[in-house]
Specification:
Helix 2 links the parallel strand 1 and strand 2. This protein is 38% helix and 12% strand. It contains two helices and two strands; from the N terminus they run αβαβ.
Length: 68
């Protein structure tokens, strides 16, 4: 199961169909996990969840394009 429930997916999809008049480019700047441990550098705590959420949202309309 994804982060967005099936009922919410349908509501969002309907809203996008009614409201989006053109294409929307979503750009996410993120960090990839590194196999190298760098002292003092904290890994991104929410990058993976944010990416998953944006991928789910982008799947709800052909007008949404996600760029990572």
């Amino acid at each position: 199961m994804g982060l967005i429930s099936d009922a919410d997916r349908e509501t969002i999809r309907t809203h996008f169909d009614e409201s989006l008049t053109g294409e929307v480019q979503i750009v996410m700047f993120t960090e990839r996990e590194s196999p190298i441990i760098i002292p003092g550098k904290q890994p991104c705590e929410m990058c993976a969840q944010t990416e998953e959420l944006l991928e789910e949202v982008a799947e709800l309309s052909d007008k949404l394009k996600l760029e990572l």
